[in-house]
Amino acid sequence: MSSNPIFYGSHITKIFGDHTALDDVSFTVRQGMTLGVVGESGSGKSTLGKISLRLLHPNNGDIYFQGYPIWGMTPTQIREMRLHVQLIPQDPKNALNPAKTVWQSLCFHMAAQKVERRRWRDVAVDSLAKVALGPEYLEAYPAELSGGQAQRIAIARAISSRPDVLVCDEAVSSLDKSVQAQVLNVLCRLQQEMGLSLFFITHDLNVVDYMCDDVLVLNNGHVVESGNTREILDHPQDAYTRELLTAKEGAIREVES
Ligand SMILES: Nc1ncnc2c1ncn2[C@@H]1O[C@H](COP(=O)(O)OP(=O)(O)OP(=O)(O)O)[C@@H](O)[C@H]1O
Ligand SMILES: [Mg+2]
Prior knowledge:
Layout: E1 5-16, E2 19-30, E3 34-38, H1 45-52, E4 60-65, E5 68-69, H2 75-84, E6 85-88, H3 92-95, H4 102-112, H5 120-130, H6 147-159, E7 165-169, H7 177-194, E8 197-202, H8 205-211, E9 214-219, E10 222-228, H9 229-234, H10 239-256
Bound molecules: adenosine-5'-triphosphate and magnesium ion (MG).
GO molecular function: ATP binding; ATP hydrolysis activity
Protein name: Peptide ABC transporter ATP-binding protein
Family: Belongs to the ABC transporter superfamily.
């Protein structure tokens, strides 16, 4: 598998008032691979995600998509980038308009993403099939969906514009453990089928262990360590990573007991 960087951040600093949320953070998402960004609440994960989606301006540094700095792009390049880098939100029910059917939400997205109108029906049915949902879900309203179904619809919506990178911010945190596994499996399968690269924000090292080729550990806006997931989980060099691992082991024991 290729290991070219498709999406990376270089020396990102973000300061809110007198609080430094991110301090000189760099990361790399390799083509077709998953980078996990892990850390406790308030460590700066979502701030990094928002900067990566060009929703929040960094004080220093830039994010590069296919080699182009996203904060230096022309409006045309920004529109193009938005086709290729999509968000999977934490709370899919809030992210779907409650007054619109799944079909209407997908059409709104496809129109914004410049999918040709004559292809909408085929793309919508195909995107639902990719997340293991039948075409009957096109007529459903968000209130009629379970959390797992809503998250799969949010994924279907994101992949309808054939993106290269999915930024997932706590994409399974609001789901029960068994439904989490279903959604993670859908993402893994899509990654293989579509060659997607995932920027996967989570506070859960079990999810990192399951999903991520590489991991970046954030503590209070600082990178404490980064690299191959297996090496870092098996041989953590930093005390903070060891603390997170202890919490992970504790969580597993709670589930087992
Ligand atoms: N818009 C903002 N204005 C001021 N401070 C902010 C803003 N957004 C985030 N922060 C602060 O930056 C820090 C990092 O926040 P962030 O949301 O990135 O953390 P997080 O790692 O995603 O946490 P969680 O796991 O709880 O989602 C926090 O101290 C937060 O209070
Ligand atoms: Mg967050």
